[in-house]
């Protein structure tokens, strides 16, 4: 028997940022037992899988994306037994579990990096990272002009064992996140062994951190610093989207495919975090022998505008179709401003966020949700400076606030201390007071609440198999998007005026809490039975 449509082609995957989802032991930091205790929420919501951001041993200089031991759980989050219990419970509930893999860099606390520092220049230990001699007199200038994505230079000079100023090592992110050298065979073997470690434990896939950064241009040439690192077309910058990354992912795909069982819908999947433009270059990552998914950041970055969104959706679908991959859709994650605040502030922001989600969940392909968006949580914009933990804050000299505002511990119960985040009132970042009103126990069963809207959309999406459908666009209008997918007509109003719906229209779902179904109000998306 063959599986006609594997699960990942239309899956809805919910991202949990472990520090901030649920705390079991009262230290104010979310943990694995906390996650296990709250998995029912995901079943109730109606998602297919959960993706966990890193919970590995780490000094936590970048929220765990600085991994010191990729084969063990940081005591902050629990133990390997806690992980096994989480996986077993999730699978028992019918949820798949995806974990993060961080192949571009390690923590400076990783045993390999410590060994590299100790071993000295031109050693086998240093060959696993990108150590280079400096330039200028006495090597006091960095090897090239690259900058860290978090601000400041991408190179740090080490002090050699004899106390002399020594070589420099590359870190595209924080100083404590040295980049691996993927030309080194040991690095390739080690990372495949890490994948096997988690696959053998039973995980259903991986989200690949900085997937476009592993291979650097030969010779590490200077970059053009006038280019915007995020928005520039493929391959122009020597540290991003180099052709050599694809060979790595072909090897990884062979590895995950070796875990598939014919006739069973049990594929283990790979999803790239690759900030690559244009869409055609990004689609290279999801060719049939490479990865299953890549985040569609172009869609995430598209403004709340009918023309721009239509173009972004059509182009994304076309590029994914060209390589036979499902398109993926995403609006929020732990690195960007929550979409309830990104599209506008206050009421307007939430209204547009709900309309945007209703639009996204009607699209064919797979969708990623970020914890708390189903509650309509806004970005926390009033964090005290001394509470900030994102390394971007320090590295930018306090110019860029960074990403803490989307990582605030989520609320569960309005009347509990810390809004029920854990058994004590402790939360590693302070929660905005409005999070209390948005706790699930205030929204569950309340018609028109954001939580009930997500539940309804996910149920209808599943029942109509929208993730496996096809889009048919209706006549263009600069302020209205209208398309049909599997018998569901989706209409979104981006303009300032209400739009009359046909009197025969049967409204299946509306992103607005309003009862009037004869008109489509501004910043609203409806799903109609065709
Ligand atoms: C990815 C992660 C981000 C992290 C960075 C460095 O972009 O999503 O949170 O800071 O990689 O690992
Ligand atoms: Mg805890």
Biggest sheet character: 8 strands, parallel
Number of strands: 20
3D shape = globular
The percent range for helix content is: 25-40%
Derived from helix and strand composition plus strand pairing, the structural class reads: alpha/beta
Low-confidence stretches: none
Q: What small ligands are held by the chains?
A: alpha-D-glucopyranose, magnesium ion
Spatial order of the strands forming the largest sheet = 11-10-9-5-2-1-13-12
Would you kindly provide a written description of the structure presented here, covering whatever features stand out?
A hairpin with a 6-residue loop joins strand 14 and strand 15. An eight-stranded parallel sheet has the order 11-10-9-5-2-1-13-12. The protein has 15 helices and 20 strands. Helix 5 runs parallel beside helix 6. By secondary structure, the protein is an alpha/beta fold. The chain is 26% helix and 15% strand. It has helices at 32-37, 39-45, 80-92, 111-119, 185-201, 245-257, 279-283, 297-301, 306-322, 339-342, 346-360, 391-395, 434-437, 440-443, 450-463; strands at residues 12-16, 49-52, 56-57, 69-73, 96-101, 131-132, 155-159, 165-170, 205-208, 269-272, 293-294, 328-330, 366-370, 472-473, 480-485, 488-493, 499-500, 506-510, 519-520, 524-529. Bound molecules: alpha-D-glucopyranose (GLC) and magnesium ion (MG). Alpha-D-glucopyranose binds at residues 62, 65, 102, 173, 209-210, 273, 334-335.
């Amino acid at each position: 028997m063959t599986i006609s449509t594997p699960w990942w082609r239309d899956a809805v995957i919910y991202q949990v940022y472990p520090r901030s989802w649920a705390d079991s032991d009262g230290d104010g930091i979310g943990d694995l037992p906390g996650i296990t205790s709250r998995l029912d929420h995901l079943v109730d919501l109606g998602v297919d899988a959960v993706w966990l951001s890193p919970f590995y041993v780490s000094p936590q200089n970048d929220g765990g994306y600085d991994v010191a031991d990729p084969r063990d759980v940081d005591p902050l989050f629990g133990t390997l037994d806690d992980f096994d219990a989480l996986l077993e419970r999730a699978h028992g509930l019918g949820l798949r579990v995806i974990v993060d893999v961080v192949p571009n860099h390690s923590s400076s606390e990783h045993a390999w990096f410590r060994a590299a520092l100790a071993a000295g220049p031109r050693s086998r230990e240093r060959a696993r990272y990108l150590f280079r001699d400096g330039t200028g007199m006495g090597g006091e200038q960095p090897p090239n002009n690259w900058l860290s994505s978090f601000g400041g230079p991408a190179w740090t000079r080490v002090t050699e064992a004899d106390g002399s100023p020594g070589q420099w090592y590359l870190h595209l992110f924080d100083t404590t996140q040295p980049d691996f050298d993927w030309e080194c065979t040991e690095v390739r073997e080690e990372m495949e062994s890490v994948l096997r470690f988690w696959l053998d434990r039973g995980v259903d896939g991986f989200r690949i951190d900085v997937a476009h950064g592993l291979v650097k241009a030969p010779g590490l040439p200077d970059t053009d610093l006038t280019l915007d690192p995020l928005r520039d077309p493929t391959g122009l910058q020597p540290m991003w989207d180099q052709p050599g990354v694809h060979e790595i992912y072909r090897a990884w795909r062979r590895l995950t495919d070796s875990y598939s069982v014919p006739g069973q819908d049990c594929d283990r999947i790979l999803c790239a975090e690759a900030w690559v433009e244009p869409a055609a270059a990004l689609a290279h990552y999801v060719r049939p022998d490479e990865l299953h998914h890549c985040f569609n950041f172009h869609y995430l970055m598209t403004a709340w505008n009918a023309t721009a969104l239509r173009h972004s959706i059509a182009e994304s679908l076309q590029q994914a179709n060209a390589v036979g991959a499902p398109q993926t859709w995403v609006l929020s994650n732990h690195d960007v401003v929550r979409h309830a605040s990104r599209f506008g502030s206050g009421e307007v922001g939430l209204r547009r966020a709900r309309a945007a989600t209703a639009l996204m969940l009607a699209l064919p392909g797979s969708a990623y949700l970020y914890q708390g968006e189903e509650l309509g949580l806004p970005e926390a914009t009033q964090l005290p400076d001394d509470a900030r933990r994102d390394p971007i804050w320090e590295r930018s000299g306090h110019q860029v606030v960074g990403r803490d505002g989307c990582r605030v511990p989520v609320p569960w119960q309005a009347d509990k201390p810390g809004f029920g985040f854990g058994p004590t009132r402790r939360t590693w970042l302070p929660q905005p007071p409005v999070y209390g009103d948005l706790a699930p126990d205030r929204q569950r069963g309340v018609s028109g609440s954001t939580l009930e809207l997500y539940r309804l959309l996910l149920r209808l999406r599943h029942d109509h198999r929208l993730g496996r459908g096809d889009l048919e666009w209706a006549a263009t209008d600069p302020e209205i998007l209208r398309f049909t997918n599997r018998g569901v007509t989706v209409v979104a109003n981006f303009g300032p005026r209400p739009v009359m719906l046909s009197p025969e229209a049967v409204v299946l779902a509306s992103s607005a809490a309003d009862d009037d179904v004869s008109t489509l109000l501004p910043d609203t998306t409806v799903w109609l039975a065709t």
